[in-house]
Amino acid sequence: MIKIIRVRDYDDMSRKAANIIAAQVVLNPESKLGLATGSSPVGTYKNLIAANEAGDVDFSHVVTYNLDEYRGLPRTNDQSYYYFMNENLFDHVNIDKANTHVPNGENPDADDECATYEAAVRALGGMDLQLLGLGRNGHIGFNEPADDFAATTHCVDLTESTIEANKRFFASADDVPRQAYTMGIGTIMCAKKILVVVSGADKAEALKAAVYGPVTPQLPASILQFHQDVTIVADEAALSLCPEA
Ligand code: F6R
């Protein structure tokens, strides 16, 4: 079941999403959180940092698993998702870094990396709460539109549209890695709760299709319609094609 929380703008989205995550951690201090990178969750992480500083949320027993990582990008590269997570969250809260996990893009053995990561997530029984952003083409994690839903953590070739969308973070489109390791749709769907943050008019088509369209691997986020506990926090611009929501 999908619950939509309509909010004013990015800041409003970020506060509300952070409150949901904070509540999760307050209720279960040993929560396993699935985390995302990209622009959508940055504000959420800022609010979580503030809540941690205020003493409202304690990350000391929290365990995290990130959705994805570029293949072949060193962890020291400021565009790696490992770097991003430290920069935007882990360095600023009282989390034990040993409890944080990002697929290792530096492992050239894709089968080994993906199988190890998948086994670790499954051993925990999936995430207690999985945070997601939404790609403009409806991707979640790096699960791009495809003929099938990928069940497990795997190595993907990024689509031109994703390379195009992500090139803003690199010197040029040529510098964007062409592959990534990502949790599969099956891995994501193992989460007990899923929280999606969506902001901006450029996400409106994908959001409408994800919530109201047919469930199809051509729009990977549409699979969320089959999950029992999904909350989407989306702003007016992102919901502009969903007037009823
Ligand atoms: C990032 C991720 C991606 C992003 C998506 C939206 O870990 O898994 O699916 O959530 O590409 O990116 P932004 O938030 O930058 O629009």
How are the SSEs placed, and which strands pair?
Layout: E1 2-7, H1 10-27, E2 32-35, H2 42-53, E3 63-66, E4 68-70, H3 81-88, E5 100-101, H4 110-123, E6 129-132, E7 154-157, H5 160-166, E8 179-182, H6 185-189, E9 193-198, H7 204-212, E10 230-235
Parallel strand pairs: 1-10, 2-3, 2-6, 3-5, 6-9, 9-10
Antiparallel strand pairs: 4-8, 7-8
Description of the structure:
There is one protein chain. The protein is an alpha/beta fold and 245 residues long. The protein has a single domain, classed as Rossmann fold (3-Layer(aba) Sandwich). It is 30% helix and 18% strand. The chain has helices at residues 10-27, 42-53, 81-88, 110-123, 160-166, 185-189, 204-212, and strands at residues 2-7, 32-35, 63-66, 68-70, 100-101, 129-132, 154-157, 179-182, 193-198, 230-235. A seven-stranded parallel sheet has the order 1-10-9-6-2-3-5, covered by helices on one side. A three-stranded antiparallel sheet has the order 4-8-7, with helices on one face. α1 (10-27) packs across α2 (42-53). The two termini are 14 Å apart. The chain binds fructose -6-phosphate. The site of fructose -6-phosphate (F6R) has 13 residues, from loops. Fructose -6-phosphate is lined by residues 36-40, 67-68, 133-135, 139-141.
